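batch job 7 of whatever, protein = Disease resistance protein RPS2-like
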Amino acid sequence: MKSLVALDLSCTHISSLPPSLPCLMNLHTLCLDSCTSLTDISMLGKLTALQLLSLSGSKIEKLPEEIGKLSNLKLLDLSHTYNLKTVPPNVISSLSRLEELNMKHSFYGWEVEGYGSGSNASFAELTSLECLTVLYVQVGNTRCLSKVIPFSSNNLAKFCISVDSSYHESSSPTYMYLKNLSIPVANWIKMLLMKTAELSLIGCDRIKNLVILDVCGVKGLKSLHVEDCSEMEYLINIMEEAGVPQSTFNSLEKLQLKNMENLKQICLCHGPLPNGIFGNLKVLRVQKCHRLDEILSHPLLKGLKILEELKVDQCHKLKFLFYSKELQE
């Protein structure tokens, strides 16, 4: 059995790990998915050859410090571990070769330096993992959105990051769900935005338009959802903000605006829009934006070359879908 490299005990009713498990010194893969009776996994720290460890669906309440000894670990799956409330400091950051971390619907109590009791890992531990290419995680502490946090995870190719107490799924390979984002925006956010294909901005009360967030020029952004941003009057205000990127939303295919109580226009521009803005937009959905009296201004309407779906719901002051003298003539 010493030559065993893979062991799958998923969906078994084991309540403790076999005492002989540390003898499997060549074990590379261990799956303990949905072992709901298993709570103590500290013994796993002796399996130093492990490269893949999956605990998805288990009921562990604390990630033991011994896990930090798994220096060869490349993949750690803690998804759907709803009972996980404690991740001690320096455990995650010790996994220096980790390439994939899956914490969907799991622990979200990451601390931010200067805030918290110090009993849990800091969010900076995640951003320090230089080999990380895949990350699925939720972060309950919104202070990380504006905090200066060193970011070494430059190799991220797939990620789903929810800054909220709930995890939000997406079919997009790169997705960010940011709640209560404010100015200034942390550099780690800006760096990941450059790789983001789908973005949700929720409850960004102090942001009046998106140009100041530097998200307009994100070349790969395909889908944008903006909701409950009570101070936002315009999605883009070309009249006030200098240096609007030429590439502003030129890859965007889907735009959803919901419950934007002070939104006056999607785009404020008295002249023609720069070439390409919203040029690839196919879906536009607007809901509960009660100050809007017109959905598509003439400059915006001219830019929507391939719009396929327009849905407007509960916009009580709406007078026109679009109003343009040029179109009437």
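notes: Residues 232-329 form one domain.
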